Structures are given as structure tokens and as C-alpha cells.
Amino acid sequence: MASSLLHPPLHLPPTVALQLSQQAPALLQSTPSSISPYSVSSIWSAAESAELWTIYENLMVSCLRTGDEPSAHLCLQRLTARFGADNERLMALRGVFQEATAKDDAALKTVLEEYEKIIAADPSNMPVTKRRIALLRTLQKPTEAIGALNQLLESSPTDAEAWAELSDLYLSQGMYSQAAFALEEVLLITPNAWNMHARLGEVLYVAASSNEGGADKNLSESMRRFCRSVELCDDYLRGYYGLKLTTKRLLKDLATNSRQSKSETGLPAPDRKTVERLNELATAKLSEIVRRNLNGEKGWTGYEKADIIAAQELLNRDATPIIR
Amino acid sequence: MTWISKSITGLGLVFLAHACYSAHEHSALLSGSAAAISSLTAQTAPVTAALPLDISIETIVAVFTICLGLVLGTPELRPIQWRVWAGKIEREGEYGFMNGDGEVDKDFVGNPFRVLESRPGFVDIRKQRKEFAEWVREGGNGQAPKS
């Protein structure tokens, strides 16, 4: 179970988060409160492992999420005792703790001022700069957050996490082309990230659905992105789901207006036959995944429950007109 | 599967030990008799004793048997193609990376690019708390809300 504490716990469902934070008191009690480098036991065993500190960090975030503040504070205290209060990463973690326990917006503003003070003293403090941007977002100031994030990216343009956050911010403002651009930057840094390819496909699909200019182009581009994501990852549910959605829309669009919209830039629109075959492939793959997962076949049980239900609904929605 | 490989390896080791013992006995016998002969005839011819063929064959067979047992006992190979590996992560989750004791491998990371979507550096902890509180209010064991 401890192995799951070695990874950032943010994506975990509430049940797992609760489970993790419930074992916090026991875990904190079983590990010594302070690790001295000169103890008798350090002769036969290592005094500390690198994993311990990762566990503390992730445990703290989990505890904050579930409202177990005493345990979170204990984690923070131990980390501070080990690495010192002026560690950049710890400054950011302390900020997370203060944000979580702040009573109202006024308290959050004082945290923000503290961040600004730290950044003024040391402009290269990356973790705190990121915290400041996250806090700006919490305080419903997305434009300021976008400005600060752009400044951050100017100084470190290879930070994939920051580009992904920028894309998410733009998306929350409805600026789809900017969001897609930021995601393309992410893909320049991590070209094999299959989930980011699917993410870009989703953003482009939303952009195409929002009746902006160039919907055709966005839709076919979105289809290509989903194709790439399933190319990078066998049996990728999210990729096939998106592929099915986009090909369905593309087929409808191609049927209603037979004229091929010639886009001046980029690739030509895909021809009808390819789209049809891709649609068939996506349907077949999705139904295979759903069937095998619901049967509980060995090696097919790793999908999220909610994803499977959504895929099943999509398949059913598509199947009803044929039955009638 | 493991008991087959273990028993084959064990059998090979027994053969190897037997071959070694035979070789040792053979050379001891030969040098003993050669010494007796040389003391009789007072000749100082060097003792060149070739091993009998059956001991050589037994040694070679034993080595190959051990190799076979070890090869059969190797754990399942990890995928080396990107899409196969990624598909395994998506399809099986952490259950695909468990060892025999039902524990997930230490170096299992899941999808390494998931941090680009959860973004721990930019975590909005207040929103996470609010979502968790709502989940508790709704009964605490329903379907997890999509974050």
C-alpha cells in the first residue's frame, strides 16, 4: 500500500484519499519523529530512505484534502526538521498548508503577499512562483494567473507542467486556440505522452463544437490527435472514445455538406472512406474493451469504472437507431 | 511453473556434483596406481590421464540442464515496445505489475505523464478540500466525481 504513497495523490478518487489519510496516524507513529545521523541502528540499516520524504510529502497533501490537519502539520514539521525552512520545495509546501487552513479570502491574500515577498527576494524560486499562480487561480483571478504563467514560461520554456497548466487556464477562459497551442508545446517536450495527445484532441473537439471559425479543420485535427494517442497506447479507452466521437461528427458533416472545404494551411481534410473505417475500428475496440472489462477478464480490469460506463453509454446511443 | 524449473535446476546440479566427484575419484585412483607403478619400475614418466568419455558427457549434460532450468525460471519479460507497455498500464492498472506476493513492484509508476494532468506543482488544495467535503456529504461511498 505504501507504494501508492510514492506518487502524487491528486488524481486519486476520494475513497483512496480517505484510505491514505486514515493510515497517516499509524504511519507517523511507526516512523521515528526525528532521524539522527548517528544512531546505533544506523550501523546495520540505513537511517533514512529517499522514499520516506516522498511519502511524507504525499501524505501531507492527502491529509489536507481530507481535513486531517494535525497529521499534515506533523508531516510538515518533520520535513522542515530534515530539510530546513528555507528549502524552496518546503516553502511551497508550507504555502499549500497555509492555503488549505486559511479561514477566508483575507487570510489567502496574506498568503499571497508572503509568496510575493519570497519571490521578490529570490525570483528564481520556481516552486513558490508556481504556488503563487495556483493561488491567483484559487482567488478567481485567471487573467493575472495567465500573465504570471506566461512570464514563468518565458524564463523556463521547457516546463511541461507549466505549459499544461497554461492550457488548462486558457481552456477555462474559453480561449481554445491558445489552449491548443499550449498543449502543442507540451507535446514538443513530451512527444510520447499518449494522454496529452488525447487531451489535445479533446480541446480541439470542444473548439470545433463551439462554432468558432475553422470547425472543420479543428475536427479533423482532433481526429488525427486521437489517432496518434491510440497509436502510442494499445487499447486506450480515452483515445478510442474520442476517435469515435470525432469520426461520428465528421461523417455527419461530410454527409450534410458534400463540398470539401479546402483549408489553405495544414493537411487536407480526410476522405470519407478513411473516416468510416476509423469509426468502425473505434466502435469495435470500444465494445471489446467494455465487454472484456465487464466480464472481469484477467488483464482488463485496470480501467476506471466511470470511463467504462461512459463508453457503454456512447455505444448504446450509437446502437439504438440501428435497432429501430 | 516455478517448481518445474527448480526441479530441473536441482537435477542438473546433482548431475554436476556427481560428475565432479567422479572426476576427482578417477584422478585420485589413477595417480595412486601410477605412483605404485612408478615406485615399482622407477620410471619418471608424467602421468597424463584423460578423463573417461562418460564423465565429460555427464558434465556437459549437467551444465545444459542447469541452463535450461534457469531459463525456464525467469520472470515474465516486460514489454519493450512503447505502445504495448503503455497499453499494459492502461488495461491492467497496477494489477499488471504485481509480483508473486501480491505487492506492486517498487518501480511501478503507472502512467508517467499523468502528472501533466494532475500537476502537483499547481495543486488547488482548497478546491480539492471542497470536493472531498461534498463527496463526504453525499454519503461518501458513491461514484467518485470526475476531477
Automatic annotation (TrEMBL), chain A:
Location(s) in or outside the cell: Endoplasmic reticulum membrane
Membrane topology: Peripheral membrane protein
Classification via Pfam families: TPR_EMC2
Keywords of this entry: Endoplasmic reticulum, Membrane, Repeat, TPR repeat
InterPro entries per UniProt: EMC2-like, TPR-like_helical_dom_sf, TPR_EMC2, TPR_rpt
Superkingdom of the organism of origin: Eukaryota
PROSITE patterns (UniProt xref): TPR
TPR repeats, residue ranges: 160-193
Primary localization class, coarse: endoplasmic reticulum
Keyword Repeat set for record: yes
Gene Ontology CC terms: EMC complex
Ranges for domain EMC2 TPR-like: 114-203
Assembly: Component of the ER membrane protein complex (EMC).
Family the entry assigns: Belongs to the EMC2 family.
Biological role: Part of the endoplasmic reticulum membrane protein complex (EMC) that enables the energy-independent insertion into endoplasmic reticulum membranes of newly synthesized membrane proteins.
Protein name, UniProt field: ER membrane protein complex subunit 2
Native species: Glarea lozoyensis (strain ATCC 20868 / MF5171)
TrEMBL record, chain B:
One GO CC annotation: EMC complex
Subcellular location(s) per record: Endomembrane system
Keywords: Membrane, Transmembrane, Transmembrane helix
Pfam name, any one: MMgT
Membrane topology note: Multi-pass membrane protein
A GO biological process held by the record: protein folding in endoplasmic reticulum
Principal location class: membrane
Family, as annotated: Belongs to the membrane magnesium transporter (TC 1.A.67) family.
Protein name: Magnesium transporter
Classification lineage: Eukaryota, Fungi, Dikarya, Ascomycota, Pezizomycotina
